[in-house]
Amino acid sequence: MENLIIIFLFLLPFSSAYTRPNEHFINCGSDFNFTGNGSRNFVGDRYAGVSFFKGKTGTKRETTSSVSQLYWTVRIYSQPSFYEFIIKTSGTYFVRLHFFVPSSSDNLYNAKFTVLASGFELLSNFSVKNSPAGSPVIKEFLVNIDEGRFKINFIPSQGSNIAFVNAIEVFLTPESFVPDTAPLAGRLRGSFDGLRSRVLHTVYRINVGGDNITIDEDTLWRNWIPDNQFLSDPSSAMKNSLFFKGEPAYTSGRANEYTAPNLVYKTARISIVQDQFNRGQSFNITWSSNITWSFKCE
Ligand SMILES: *[C@@H]1O[C@H](CO)[C@@H](O)[C@H](O)[C@H]1NC(C)=O
Ligand SMILES: *[C@@H]1O[C@H](CO)[C@@H](O)[C@H](O)[C@H]1NC(C)=O
Ligand SMILES: *[C@@H]1O[C@H](CO)[C@@H](O)[C@H](O)[C@H]1NC(C)=O
Ligand SMILES: *[C@@H]1O[C@H](CO)[C@@H](O)[C@H](O)[C@H]1NC(C)=O
Ligand SMILES: *[C@@H]1O[C@H](CO)[C@@H](O)[C@H](O)[C@H]1NC(C)=O
Ligand SMILES: *[C@@H]1O[C@H](CO)[C@@H](O)[C@H](O)[C@H]1NC(C)=O
């Protein structure tokens, strides 16, 4: 396993004055707004009066009834270009990039490109080829952004000459959503400082003992996946799907409903060994995953 930094977001101080932002959600290459997804208004970037993209680009429309209308249009770049957002509040932002390739589109399927933001490479020589076919690929990052102009650059790789994007989300997270210091996990000891000045990439968001949680069920339009595939020794762990029937009572200054949706707390894993024979002994359920990722600072 690579060096693994697990950030526990569960016991952090929060200030509660936060409402879900209504910008920026962009429906790329489109002249209509799409509002059908988690009551967000994905503004068409060709809609008169808004101008997020710069440089020379093309757009394409493909009606594919099997996917969300958000993915029917795409902005395509044949040379380096960028989207630009006006940021009114400094802080940590969710940046989500959505990519979808209809089966009929060979040139998008073969596209390879790099995405930069705030001097970081979010995606490096990215291609949808490495992802499951037929469904949208969503890449999620947490980026610290200052007030002013924020650019997301799309740079086609040599030999590909095409970059594209179907939808973009750039929205402010609650205050202190990302801690500046986090404990290191795995074999590493100590803590990691300066997290807020880094770009974080979501690799897995796991709902222990539970099912998928969809973006409609989450307070910040996140998706969560079940933990089954990550359990090292499934026989040591019992799934308890009625772990908690109530609603969490948040104490002031601690986590709140944006830290995780209530559904996350309703399921759990219980160590079978501990439960039946070994009360009081150390608790061991192990989750493991392969994480290979690195960011390059420009
Ligand atoms: C699309 O959304 C933008 C931003 O909220 C709004 O200004 C515009 O009127 C909307 N366009 C349509 C056609 O509804
Ligand atoms: C909402 O978006 C998610 C992923 O972004 C997608 O899987 C889902 O189908 C969308 N739902 C609708 C109604 O468009
Ligand atoms: C990206 O691909 C190009 C060739 O297309 C290669 O020259 C470059 O080193 C690659 N960059 C990375 C970070 O892998
Ligand atoms: C969770 O979602 C994935 C991908 O959408 C799907 O393959 C899987 O069957 C779902 N799992 C459950 C338990 O619903
Ligand atoms: C916990 O279990 C995992 C595998 O299930 C094992 O690799 C690890 O050594 C165990 N740790 C302890 C402290 O028993
Ligand atoms: C991790 O990688 C190994 C070897 O490449 C592979 O056998 C295993 O299935 C992977 N595990 C997960 C959870 O992806």
What about the largest sheet? Answer: 7 strands, mixed
Ligands present: 2-acetamido-2-deoxy-beta-D-glucopyranose
Spatially, the strands of the biggest sheet line up as: 2-3-1-14-8-11-17
CATH class of the largest domain: Mainly Beta
- The percent range for helix content is under 10%
Second rung of CATH, namely the architecture of the largest domain: Sandwich
SSE arrangement, N to C: EEEEEEEEHEEEEEEEEEEEEHEH
Number of helices: 3
Whole-number tally of structural domains: 2
Low-pLDDT sequence parts:
1-15, 294-298
CATH superfamily of the largest domain: Galactose-binding domain-like
What integer value in Å does the Rg equal? Answer: 21 Å
Key structural traits:
Jelly Rolls; binds 2-acetamido-2-deoxy-beta-D-glucopyranose; 33% strand; disordered C terminus; 298 residues; mainly beta; 5-stranded antiparallel sheet; 2 domains
